[in-house]
Amino acid sequence: MPLALPGAELALEADWLPPADAAALFATLQTAIPWEVHRIRLFGRELASPRLSCWIGDPGAAYAYSGAVFQPRPWPAALLPLRARLREELGIDFNSVLANLYRDGRDSMGWHSDDEPELGARPVIASLSLGATRRFLLKPRRGAGGRLALELAAGSLLLMRGDTQQRYRHALPRTAKPVGPRINLTFRSIQPQAKPDRSRGARAPHPGRSEGPAG
Ligand SMILES: O=C(O)CCC(=O)C(=O)O
Ligand SMILES: [Fe+2]
């Protein structure tokens, strides 16, 4: 289903994975992914991010950041059929995934755009949600534009493309409601030949991302 947000290109497919498959994948990934705490920058300070994460991808999907090259973790077998299906449906062979585990309502992701130079100017990002339903927000980076709040339920696939990252930020705010754990997988295409643009210095690629306070 396309979602109306001026200047953005968004589509949400609610039952991309049937509930039983989504539940099985969630259980598998809780242990199959080597979860770790990534560092983020908030107002110029480096902090532990409020969630667990893992950068997964092809060997060529390494990225350079602050003079170091980060190698992605290998693909867990359980993610390979998803990659193949996305390749069939979208014609895109995503070479990397950022996995995030939100342990409960206190875990979150602050306002950011997925606009790292390695992703190219108009990235296509496919975001699969598993586990607990959480609210996902979009707001314009500057000037006019709409706002959107989406409830991302298990098995749903959100596609962000076109100028979505250039025009909008998104966030997954904390919630005081009691919620169980949620896993989100954002499939991405890292362009190996694209060097990070150091003239934009302040902006870091994953996982040293720049992110505002949640929600
Ligand atoms: O958890 C989500 O739904 C959003 C994740 C996200 O924005 C990201 O990984 O860049
Ligand atoms: Fe994001």
From TrEMBL:
Residues 93-191 form the Fe2OG dioxygenase domain. SUPFAM superfamilies: Clavaminate synthase-like (SSF51197). Keywords: Dioxygenase, Oxidoreductase. It holds the Pfam family 2OG-FeII_Oxy_2. One of its GO terms (molecular function) is dioxygenase activity. InterPro entries: AlkB-like (IPR027450), AlkB-like_sf (IPR037151), ALKBH3 (IPR032854), Oxoglu/Fe-dep_dioxygenase_dom (IPR005123). PROSITE patterns: FE2OG_OXY (PS51471). Residues 187-215 are annotated as: Disordered. It comes from the Bacteria. PANTHER family: ALPHA-KETOGLUTARATE-DEPENDENT DIOXYGENASE ALKB HOMOLOG 3. This is Alpha-ketoglutarate-dependent dioxygenase AlkB.
